[in-house]
Amino acid sequence: MSDSSRDTVEGAGWSSAERGAYRQLLPGRVEKLSWLNPRTLWAARNGVAASWFGDPTGRTRSRWVAQRAAAGAPADKVIRRPETDDFSFMVIGDPGEGDESQYAVVPGFLRAGRGTSFAVIASDVIYPVGSTDDYGTKFFRPYQDYPAPVYAVPGNHDWYEDLGGFMRVFCDDAPPLPPEPAPRPLSGAWWRALLWHRPRPADERALAEARKLRSAPEQQAVQPGPYWAIDAGPVRIVGIDTGLLGTLDAEQGEWLREVSKGPRPKILVTGSPLYVDGEHHPCAIEGGGTVDDVVRDPAHHYVAAIGGDIHNYQRYPVDVGGRTIQYVVSGGGGAFMHATHTIPRVSVANVTESDFRCYPLRGDSLAFYSGLYGRRLRLPRFFALTEAEAMAVVAERLGVPPVRDPGGPVRVTRRMRLVASLLGAGRRPERRRRLRLPVRKVYTQLFSPGSATYSPPFFKSFLRLDVTAEAVRLRCFAATGNRAQEVEPPVEDEVTIPLARPAGVTSGPARCP
Q: Which of 216, 133, 137 is closest to 168 using CA atoms?
């Protein structure tokens, strides 16, 4: 097994001289997406409009679901697959940026994904606005060699064109929704409609050509709508759509409660993680209750909840009345990296720093960002920290030992502490509460990079879950963009989740030949 970032600097991808072969997969012209570009921000304005004038996604989602039901989708929205008790599947979150940061994940994903039955995309299939025209280079091309079906739950970016592209690709080429009546003048809905970004007409010829890249019969997947469940072997995988603002409408909430009943062990896949950055975000359901209420209910037998949206990997093993649910963030599939060094010392739901796992390591995250801003501000001698320096200053601020052996003593200097403070490196919770300025939130909102870098290490990640009748083995694999990690993707985290075999739950049917 290859070294991981927890083992060596080389395992983290800092020292390799050989760039990966992923560049051969890139399309001829790569558009470098930047969230600092005003045109990009304007195109993605629907989230702001929804927060100001009311979120219409619940009603729009209900219309999509009704359309799919009229077309013959199963009423319970359950996909029944032919897996036996022993099977594997992949999870990749927030992949669709279409640039080097996405394509750098592909070789390792294909290698680690050998023998898996299907894959699930957790949030934000396509950036920036989920356009149908972007699916060619941001979905069909990168995953053309993955030989199995791909299912998906949408993220907020997939909703920026009212989910039209997502529904066409994943839901049996669903036709556009008919227009709704014009809202009452000067109402909140009227102002929202005035600002709303509308879907552009799709290039039908380009879409037809793109579909050919994943046209093999064994690659086909049709899902009943933007939310669904998959029965595979001994488990049920439940995928929910959290829309633009990270909530569920009442109709979907009622479906979630119903589909969660029964003794079969369940895994939730959601566009909005329930535990992230040391905080609990239970995800409200319209009309009352939360998604996490459903997950924690012992009658529902959830063993894990995996969410995208945040572009890194985190894991929180939470004890809920004598049993453990693994809450996972898996959004490192291709978009720019969200910092982990801003995560304070973890103390949430009885999960402590010793239980918590993240990738990239906080020290590697701080080193990455310090180098990035050293280049942007043209102050590399002041801002840039080595990976050993960054690891040491993070360990000091959190009051924990360095995760990786620095290879010798590292003296933490005033400059290193100042850089760590300027870049929002996490503090212990008791110290952070005394701050008058919420440093971490300010850093995350204002100084997180608006575009990816274009040289390794990228610190991307994806999951493989191996299921048996007794347990689920969850592994987080890293993709740095270097050749060594393409050839043998390192395992950054691994946990075995026991499955209590409920009485009356039989094995899945034999696999079709």
A: 133
